[in-house]
Amino acid sequence: MIVWIVFIAFVLIFLALDLGVFHKDEHVIKSKEAGIWTAIWVTVALSFSGVIYWLFDAEIIANPTGLTPNNAVLKYITGYLIELSLSVDNVFVIAVIFGSFKIPPIYQHRVLFWGILGAIVFRAIMIFFGVALITKFEWIIYIFGVFLLYTAFKMLKSDDDDFDPKNSFVFKQIKKIYPVTSTMHGHDFFVKRMGINAATPLFVALIVIELTDILFALDSIPAILAITADPFIVFTSNILAILGLRSMYFLISRMLEKFRYINYSLVVILAFVGLKMLFSHYIHLPEWVSLTVISVSLVAGILASTLIKDKD
User: Keyword set for this entry (predicted)?
Assistant: First the structure.
């Protein structure tokens, strides 16, 4: 329990420093700054694998699945790469949401900060129940596997060009529940006009992003649970990937058109993990196989997007 408290305290302290010190003065996040922060978060996440090894080697943390230190590290890195790769698809949606609600770049970091803070809470709840379900009812893993295969098929066939947050069910319900103003008021989420409190586009974008992340978690958490049911590894790999999502967004959101083949990488990853879940009781693949498939899929998608010229 102490290890969990220390990790959560570390996350909260860094988030406080992020908004209160590093980004105290609101400004547009340039690609160079985003690249530096992305490198920092990836380094922190990969370095944390050393902490994972130490915790399992010294038997400081509970080990319900009986992992060796080496296996624990491989599962952590694999889970982190899965969440990081699926976050790329989230970046596409966030860009559409910001564009739809006309959120100025100077305020986008603030929205993502609070969005990620909420995402951490929801992910923790979903991970807790996901691990509990798999531990208590082993057959749940087959449902997760079929769901991931369905998600991969849907991602392969879907066309996100028609997605418009302003026509979404969520936005329509928000307008029914609470007054919404169409104009920005600095970085404020709420404004009082003519004695009536109203939500600004900044708050609406935050809610839509928050709910969108929950939908993405329905894919990513079962995917990580296919790698391991160890709650600490699932939680830490998931959270550290989410914390790097903001800088990743500012780094690659301006290059979305260049990553037009990355969706096929995500399809391969989801399909592989789904099949691994379905055959988990019959075929036991070494952990390096999963890590290789995920890494090769991502690299192939990036190379294809870079090297193959767009016919349009």
Answer: Membrane, Transmembrane, Transmembrane helix
298 within domain boundaries: yes
Structural domain including 128 reads: 29-307
Residue 260 lies in a domain: yes
Q: Please tell me the total count of domains within the chain.
A: 1
Q: Is residue 92 part of a domain?
A: yes
Say yes or no to pLDDT of 258 above 70: no
Cα gap 94→100, rounded to integer Å: 10
Distances in whole angstroms, Cα of residue 172 to Cα of each of 167, 169, 178, 181, 208 = 7, 5, 10, 13, 11
What is the per-residue pLDDT for 56? 92
For a pLDDT cut of 90, what percent of the chain falls above it?
Answer: 8
pLDDT tens per residue across span 199-226: 888 888 888 888 777 777 776 777 777 7
| Residues 159-190 pLDDT 10s | 555 555 666 666 777 777 777 777 777 778 88
Per the model's pLDDT, the better-predicted residue between 90 and 124 turns out to be: 124
